[in-house]
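Contributing new complexes? Match this layout with pyridoxal-5'-phosphate.
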Amino acid sequence: MTDETWMETELAQLHAQGLERQLQVMPDSRLWRDKSGACHALGVGVFMLDGRRILNFSSNDYLGLARAPAVVEAAAAALRRWGAGATASRLVVGTLPCHAELETRLAQFKGYAAALVFGSGYLANVGAVAALVGRHDRILADKLAHASLLDGATLSRATIRRFQHNDVDHLLRLVRQKPASARDLIITESVFSMDGDLAPLRDIARVAQEHGAMLLVDEAHATGVWGPGGTGLIGEWRLQQAVSVAMGTLSKALGAYGGFIAGSETLKRWLVNRARPFIFSTGLPPPCAGAVLGALDVLEKNHCLGADLLRRADVFRKRLQAAGFNTGGSVSQIVPVIIGDNQKTLALARRLRSHGILAAAIRPPTVPAGTARLRLSVTLEHTQEDLDRAADILATTAREEGLM
Ligand SMILES: Cc1ncc(COP(=O)(O)O)c(C=O)c1O
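Output block (do not edit by hand):
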């Protein structure tokens, strides 16, 4: 056996700092019988365990579509028709009619000429960023941009400059330093994953257009929730002209798994030829494509899902703020409760778990040092009553832990 003591030593250090991450298996408890004996399938956001209603605030299944009958049925139909896997890279023999249909639907949904589906949102970001810039170019990325964007940036070998979070003046100063021969790619999220705040997208788009920079906007947490019919913030503000690369994931509000880039036909052709996670990996499994087609049908028929969710999240956030919690700049379905200290955040998450509230303790390096937090995702499965109860339990528990 090779010597693994170095791993043990470093893991012990992580553990001591409250930074070790561990896997937790979710209880298989979602089927439950009520007093009359009827069997109910509950979702991911709320489920029954030992007769107790558990509120899960750690899931990104914002609209409760992962277990929605229409979505599960569409996934099952695609599974039966096309099989469990795509069997090869899309460029070899792996492009199935369900991939083509999904890409047409996603392009229409986002208001772009074309879309290309990847194996995950992470792969879409890594693939697109590394395909668009090279060693003589620059990437200007928001300080809080997601790890997948930064990993793509590293792979691209371009010069990486970070602008202060949502600081358009800082971005402008960096844009003005562009060497004549370089291409600039500006990168931001539209709804930030750990803070739940929004990018000043219209201002960033203006900077990009005025300076001829490419602009990639990650709509992982906006897709399905924000904008008309869930099309995202690019759609809300009609920024398709300025946002040359619109990234979305199929893994959050759309309830399945996978990622995509929407843009021009030329961009799609370029990515098919240059995005390595697309070229050198097996195509998206057909059941995922089927599930997302089902989810898009649900969104088309129910235009208000995102708006309902945001209203509910707003009431919840205000209750937490009134109780004295710091929810940062959140205005979305993602509500952070910023604690600061890693160990105290972990202890609070553990106590909440014992009260039937599942909330992820997010620590560095996912968030900057000293800003450890609980990240609470509100979903449509949480009723107003659930949210009121959760806010009360949070306030009581935090007080008992000496955090208020
Ligand atoms: C902002 C952002 N971009 C991209 C991703 C990656 O998406 P996926 O989970 O589909 O790989 C995530 C997921 O955590 C995210 O939060």
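Reviewers usually confirm one structural detail per submission. For this one: Residues 310 and 333 are 6 Å apart (CA to CA).
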